Amino acid sequence: MKCFGKSVAGMQRKNNEDSIYVGDEASQVKNIFIVADGMGGHNAGEVASGLAIEKFLNYIAPKFKDGIDGETVLDVLVEGVSYANREIYSEAVSDADRSGMGTTFTCACLNDGKLYAVHVGDSRIYVLDARGLKQLTNDHSFVMEMVRQGKMTLEEARVHPKRNIITRAVGTEERTDVDTVVAEIKENDIVLLCSDGLSSMVEDREIEKIILECADAQGAVEALINKANENGGKDNISAIIIRNEVNA
């Protein structure tokens, strides 16, 4: 398995409120990959996204120390998000400058040929396999709720003035609902995690084309970020690529 991740401010934002975690062989917790896109005034979004990853990893690290099996991995990941949510919410209510801060939280764990994911917000997980690029997560956003109800098309959602409004986040309420995903991951499949700074700037078919044209994870991430910036770079941009290569 080869992986690479990068997060940048984009072309129009001064601060980068995204945070990422890439669980390579040198990391605290291996085979865990996270994108968190923070929100809130007074740089609180940056605090929320970083704190979410920190608290989540602190919770799951002891449980992953000696390996974890498929029967319990999702439970541990959900518990980790719930713990991070409580910690961020507690800090937000105790500090006026950080009131209302929150973050998306999208985490993938690759374990024994499967992808286990937990997800809150509108950051995304995609898998690119022999059949093409597929989004595994559902966006918790105003526009995608309208799309799912048949009240808006995907084309309309991409340019709607409320496209950045999310309906679920980590840290904004005392409790949050966490989506879970389990998917088979085959040899040579490619996994992408990204914030909406990428997915809102680069259409899925172009994301697929760019990944296929790149020979390695780092090249794909750099090319995706460059394309998002070329298209306007209106938001912070984060991307993680995991290539499920045998003997990598």
The assigned CATH architecture is 4-Layer Sandwich
Low-confidence stretches: none
Can you count the beta strands? 11
* Discrete helix count: 7
Radius of gyration (CA) equals: 17 Å
* CATH overall fold name: Phosphatase 2c, domain 1
- Spell the H/E element sequence: EEEHHEEEEEHHEEHHHE
Helix content: 25-40%
Major β-sheet profile: 6 strands, antiparallel
Give the overall silhouette.
globular
Mean pLDDT: 92
Question: At the fourth CATH level, what is the homologous superfamily?
Answer: PPM-type phosphatase domain
How much strand? 25-35%
Global structural class:
alpha+beta
- Head-to-tail CA distance between termini: 5 Å
Domain count: the total is 1
CATH class: Alpha Beta
Structural write-up:
α6 (204-213) packs antiparallel against α7. The protein is globular, with a radius of gyration of 17 Å. By secondary structure, it is of the alpha+beta class. The mean pLDDT is 92. The chain has helices spanning 44-64, 73-94, 142-148, 154-159, 196-199, 204-213, 217-230; strands spanning 2-8, 18-22, 32-39, 102-103, 105-111, 114-120, 124-129, 132-135, 179-184, 190-194, 237-243. It has a single domain, classed as Phosphatase 2c, domain 1, CATH 3.60.40. The strands form 2 sheets. Strands 2, 3, 4, 5, 6 and 9 form a 6-stranded antiparallel beta sheet that branches. A 5-stranded antiparallel beta sheet has the order 1-11-10-7-8. β5 and β6 form a beta hairpin. The protein is built from 7 helices and 11 strands.
